[in-house]
Amino acid sequence: MSLRKGLSIFLFLSLAVCVAILLLSIDRKSFVIFKKADAFKLYLAFMLVVCVWLLDALKIRLLIRAAGESVTFLTSMELTWINYFGAAITPMQSGGGPLQMYVMYQHGISVGKSVAITIIRTVLIMLILGMMIPFAIMIRGDLPKMGWGVRGFVFYVVIFILAIWLSLIVSIVKPVLVKRLAARIINLLRRVGLLKAEWEASLLKRAMREIDTYNENVRAFLTTGRRYFLPCVFVAFVQIVFQLSVMPCMIWALGLPVSYPECVLVQALFLFLLYFIPTPGGSGAAEGGAALVFSLFVPWNVAGILGIGWRFMTEYTGIFLGAIVALRRIGWKLANQIMSRDDAKPKGTGGSGSGAD
What's the whole-model pTM score? Predict the structure, then answer.
């Protein structure tokens, strides 16, 4: 999907759903409740978002150090924001990884290393987020206000997480299987006309080299890079806790009661589900879903505004900053090439993409 198309769909769906939510939820009582809002707690909620950005940047920097490379903290912040932008304009939030990898390549980090970094970063977040769900169930022993459909989704989450880790283990222990898969994909691209025959040999050679580099660096995370990787796991956990604390903080700002564990559990389910929404950045479903999640804890006449406010605070600000970084670092034309499907063809540097994030 091209950058322009993805951005257009994201803006249209987000705006349309936001307007619909506001029209369906706001009444006179809404303004009365929001007039009594605690400005300090709303400010605290935004500060939690800033902390999420800082922790994400620290996490990326630790992963880069674990891979034997180094970037400044400012660069790691840019990598954080550009991921928001890339994820917002691609289906299933898949576009953040390629943009991050290109910026890392600009700083002398090989494609193999950048692939390993983005994959480990995403898998780490999804693992912690996914495993919070059954862990919360074991603590509470129930799922308030939820039916068997959600219980089935929880089971699916556990299976999906296990499948991710199995794939990661196979890629480390049996890299030859990954090489065979890569060779078949390259051959298929040539057969369907997406790859010129004269490029097949060079692309295959490069792919084998990058797979070896990826394998070496993933192993390095758990061996020589362990002193950076283990703190990275802790930082990722704290980041998620801060991220999931924004919603209850916004509810408390209105003077309304909320069960913190239950709110965290519902969010974990919701955020995990957004990874699989086919619209760019989960647009439409994210805004509507946020309002529905809030409606589990607050009256509907304030849930809509809170849902949109939560989305603006946690996502839109990061997307806006990421757009600035993308245009300054990469430029519209090159960013569009990286995001488009035509990038499957070799185009020199930056021609390798990943759906890791």
Answer: 0.78
